[in-house]
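Sequence in, structure out. Go.
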Amino acid sequence: MARAGLTAERVTTAGAELADEVGLDQVTMSQVARRLGVKDASLYTHVRGLEDLRGRIALLAADEKTIRLAEATAGRAGKEALVSFANAWREYARSHPGRYTATQVPIRIDPELAAKAPGPRRAVELTYGMLRGYGLAEPDLTDAVRLLRSTFHGFVALEAAGGFAHERSPQRSWLRALDALHTLLEHWPPSREGDS
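Output:
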C-alpha cells in the first residue's frame, strides 16, 4: 500500500536527494522506494520508470539552478554579473552533484513536463541577457554561451573528480579564469565572414 501523500514531486525530490548522495547513475527505483518507505510498485503510480524519474530530476535541478543564477545576477552587469553567475553555477554543482549531473547529460524528458518547466528556458534567457551586457549579438552570443558552459562545466567536473592536484589553489585558478573570460568578452573577436 502506498504511503499517504506520495506524489510525483515527493518521488522526484527523494530521487534527487539520492542522486546527490550516490550519483545519478546509481539511482534505482528500488532505492527511491526504500527511501520513501514504500513498495517499488507504489512509485509507478507517480512516475513511469527510472528514465521518467531522471527526466524529472533534471527539470527540478534546472529550476533550482536557474533560481540561484537569477538571484546571483539580479541588478548586476558586466564582470560583477559574470562572476556572480559563475560562482552560483559552481556552488550548485558542488552542493548538488547528482542533480547537477542531470542538467549536463542527455536525458529523455517527457515533452509535456518539459513544456511546463520554466528552468531550462529561463537559464538560457539569463545567460543570453548577461552576455548582451557585453554588447554581443548573434552569432557571437551563441558562441559565448557555449564557451561559458564549457568553461564552467569543465572546471567543476575536473574539480569534483579531484583533477586539480597541483599545489596552486583551484580557487585562485577559478578567479583567474573568470578574469580571462571577462577580458575576452569585453574584446570579443569579430566573426569571420562566412561563419554560420
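Check: The longest helix spans residues 50-73. The two ends are 57 Å apart (CA to CA).
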